[in-house]
Amino acid sequence: MTAFLGTPSALGMSEDARFGLSRVVTLPGPFALDGGAVLAAVDIAYETYGTLNAERSNAVLICHALTGDHHVASDHPRTGKPGWWTRMVGPGQPVDPARHFIVCANVLGSCMGSSGPASVDPATGRPYAMRFPVITLRDMARAQALLMDHLGVRVLLAVVGGSMGGMQVLEWAATYPDRVRSAVVIASAARHSAQNIAFHEVGRQAIMADPNWREGEYYGPGDVPPTAGLAVARMAAHITYLSEAGLTEKFGRRLQARETKSFGFDADFQVESYLRHQGISFTDRFDANSYLYITRAMDYFDLAEEHGGRLANAFAGSATRFCLVSFDSDWLYPTSESRAIVHALNAAGAAASFVELSSPFGHDAFLLDVPELNRVVDGFLRAVAA
Amino acid sequence: MTAFLGTPSALGMSEDARFGLSRVVTLPGPFALDGGAVLAAVDIAYETYGTLNAERSNAVLICHALTGDHHVASDHPRTGKPGWWTRMVGPGQPVDPARHFIVCANVLGSCMGSSGPASVDPATGRPYAMRFPVITLRDMARAQALLMDHLGVRVLLAVVGGSMGGMQVLEWAATYPDRVRSAVVIASAARHSAQNIAFHEVGRQAIMADPNWREGEYYGPGDVPPTAGLAVARMAAHITYLSEAGLTEKFGRRLQARETKSFGFDADFQVESYLRHQGISFTDRFDANSYLYITRAMDYFDLAEEHGGRLANAFAGSATRFCLVSFDSDWLYPTSESRAIVHALNAAGAAASFVELSSPFGHDAFLLDVPELNRVVDGFLRAVAA
């Protein structure tokens, strides 16, 4: 069964690189999860750009971050906003539909069309809510691998992702080494640190403290979702995506339009107003339960632990070529985390290039205009394809 | 009118350095605030240790941080917990009741006995709640100055504080230069950065999103305070008090007593359980509205802005001797903030010594066992007294 989102189109690959082809596929199960649960089937929403060549050798999988979606390079069908990574993916960009068959899939557990807590449980006819099983980053990669089977792609030219996307790339390389010719891991880490877990836990507690959360049962008609808690969760997370210097440059201590302090509790400072807006607007596009599940998956992520406690084991004998990029102002997944991966790759004898780029934008730099990032990824992908 | 808290005792200075003398004094107004409001009178809860000498030259004021109280060196009368800075203040410590007359006052706006939003508004006979005026760090210092008048102390040998305590020290030095012989500013800053404001705004939004907050009107019989929101606020803030390395060393990715992941949403990781405990236990001892007011005061704090936009102006002609200490792992008030103060002191021709200490504990280091901090403060205070 295949349902369609966005612009319906004939089955088969789209020739229109500008708009992409957005679909949902139901992949038949049983789909066994790391946590022991089994899903009867999983829906995966995805979008493709470009054409798979006759040798089936030009496929590139783009993996999105925590709150992302599959509309990587085309306007979002509902909001009309441009794709979230048009700086990296699109005509003339390092990942180019003129040369690559590009696939981006909404991760398992999310709320943009793939199976997640807001999906209807076929066994009950009601939304899973918190009955959806807890998933892992590896489960996300497994679902993507099934999607690749469905699309007739056995070997990927590249798997590319930043932040949580980079974690999926690592899972791909570790789980399907013979299906990944190259792996691009940007602003990411091979495990969540105590501080990473701590920030996510604040977000989860903010959601669960919202009385509208109701143990996740807020999908009924007339129900109000826990937007207040989700907004606070997003605000806390958003701070971690930016650098202190970037925040200072962007906002400093500048006041809102009124020129003096209110001596009240309205948003006096621009940074307050900005954060409030980030929090509130997020609740329009994201499901609070999905936020719980995906942050949990990230916190559980520890690639070394999955491989006997030694990160190098995850890459033993790998023929995949790796490209790692970190940003000097990223304090969420700092350079030391990328360096730890590079050390493990070196220990495993895998081919790895690594660069720390300078940027004032903190973790978010991977999504922003950093020409050096594009040059690095473009050069790497061309070398792999050659 | 003087009310008593803790161990009642005769008026006059306590001879018992171990227990201190805890009181509340009502300072007659009108007390004009930076925001334009006027309080008819203010209550200030304070504790003293040691004896004022005949020359009245040995008084040391200790300023507490955001959620602190006046029980700096003695057991809390209600919880029985030891004073919050017994490592710095007490027999044999740098601030020693055998040599100093030590005063610590609960800040204006707090909830430990000084006037704040939970206090009864004499004009209405009901708690102020959000009708309490927004206060500033300078207002806090002004109230302390009135307390010093009340205690017969004109000139302080030293004003000492860490974090928000250090901000009060700076306000003292700038507002009452002829009353401050020396100023010890530890792990602090002369203004709140955009990132500092952002974290506080997350906390405020978490509190205000709690339906039990009810615009601050939760003091009535049967009312339930907004503990869930306050706990989330505390959790977010608590992360900023610790370093990433410190969290990793203390918790890493270690699991709770059960040895495997639950694949659920209970606290699997020790760091989750620790943070939840920090959040919940905080709500037993702190008032949510006070948290709003004091974080607001900190966010408003910008000593340069109060002095024509140039920090050096705050210290022009000052004869105060300054001692500044920062910690290399403190990312809340990093060394660069202390250095900016030192540059301003140098520009103003003020006497300043500055040291960055190495500690794995992040911002909280000023409260913890850092022998080098004690040596620095002890040496400085002895030199000043000599």
UniProtKB/TrEMBL annotation, chains A, B:
Q: In which pathway does this enzyme or protein participate?
A: Amino-acid biosynthesis; L-methionine biosynthesis via de novo pathway; O-acetyl-L-homoserine from L-homoserine: step 1/1
**Pfam families documented for this protein:** Abhydrolase_1
What are this entry's molecular-function GO terms?
Answer: homoserine O-acetyltransferase activity
Family matches, as Gene3D superfamilies: alpha/beta hydrolase
The EC number of this protein is 2.3.1.31
Q: Where does substrate bind?
A: 234, 364
Q: What is the protein's known function?
A: Transfers an acetyl group from acetyl-CoA to L-homoserine, forming acetyl-L-homoserine.
Name of this protein: Homoserine O-acetyltransferase
Organism of origin is: Sphingomonas prati
Annotated gene = metXA
